Amino acid sequence: MRRFNVGVLGIGDISDVYIANLRKYPIVNVLGCAGRERAKALEKARRHGIERAYMSADELLADEDIDIVLNLTVPQVHAELTLAALRAGKHAYSEKPLGTTFDEGKRIIDMAQVKGLYVACAPDTFLGGRLQTFRKLIDAGTIGRVFGATAFAVSRGPEWFHPDPAFIYQRGGGPLLDIGPYYLSALASLFGSVKRCSAIANTSSAERVVESAPRAGERFKVEEPTHVSAMLEFESGAHCSLIFSYDVWDSALPRLEIYGDAGTLCMCDADPCDGPNIFGGRVLLRTRRNYRWKDLPRGDVSLSDWEDVAIEHRFNETSHRENSRGIGLVDMAYAIAENRAPRASAAMALHVQEVMDGILASARSGRSVAMETTFLRPDPFPLMFPEGAA
Prior knowledge:
It is a single chain. By secondary structure, the chain is α/β, with parallel strands linked by helices. The protein has two domains: 4-125 and 323-344, NAD(P)-binding Rossmann-like Domain (Rossmann fold), CATH 3.40.50.720; 126-308, Dihydrodipicolinate Reductase, domain 2 (2-Layer Sandwich), CATH 3.30.360. Helix content is 28%, strand content 21%. The protein has helices at 14-22, 38-48, 57-62, 78-87, 102-115, 129-139, 174-178, 180-191, 327-338, 346-365; strands spanning 4-9, 28-34, 52-53, 68-71, 91-94, 119-121, 146-154, 194-202, 207-209, 219-221, 227-234, 239-245, 256-260, 263-267, 284-287, 307-308, 369-370. The strands form three sheets. It has a nine-stranded mixed β-sheet with strand order 16-15-14-13-7-12-11-8-17. Strands 3-2-1-4-5-6 form a six-stranded parallel β-sheet, sandwiched between helices. Helix 4 (78-87) runs parallel beside helix 5 (102-115) and helix 8 packs across helix 10 (346-365). It starts with a strand and ends in a 20-residue tail after the last strand. The model has no long low-confidence stretch (mean pLDDT 93).
């Protein structure tokens, strides 16, 4: 099987875990990297033993030895650089989101089809052990017919720890486009395509303040809603209610719950920054077998009463710094070699982008918004990936 040379565009902190993970798989080779500053690219290359450090993105894209471009730049230029990679004849894997708008995503899909190239997109956390276990239990009928779900991604926002959080609140940001892709990709991987959505949204403050060094005290403008409530109707008939917020001081809400007529699946992490945006964690199951409501005083419900389902899949980390980011790109490399669709497909990323655009459009108009795209739900991830990848 051929080996694919990868060029990394964008060398911020997130690139370290990507590069470290990609080096574990013989099918890919991180050949070069480029950032906004040559000196930083040289340092990144030295630290990771990367052969080539480029002066610019254009120089990386001009390198005929590069097969796949890994786009880790800020969201505002994702589409621009992914399109440039495709024009240069490279396959592309992008950090989320695919673009800042649905129209940008469509241009990427259209160009990839014309060029006969592959595009895939993060997040790939739905390939992790926890969500693959959710998928296995749902597909096996363990909780019966799935009719509903709830999802909550609520916190005080990233400015309390992020050294430069302003871009997260600019166009193409906010909690919906920053955290939403993890939750919506998780739901899409479990339920398939969304039929329509409706939403309301607001912005708590026109400005926010950096709380972490070295820019502590600096004020910056907010350009996207910071509290979004939405309802999704899936083609399957299931309904899901969601809240994405950077205005909440604390919450005891579960991150994700799936409701079937024979049981409930619960993803309940103590840390509000956890949920479908990490690969691992507990899978809690409640069915008739462990349903004890009549034995408990009203309101006295403990998670210890739920079944803690064993996770057989790999990629089950609960760390934000040491995890499996990049397995979606590795799967894409196998997909190219095997002439099949990648699991973290651009089609699913485009659909998620349309859903997010639809949520914002609904919040502005007060009307529900129908989706025009659909996608094929990705195949389950093999227990022994990459051995037996299919």
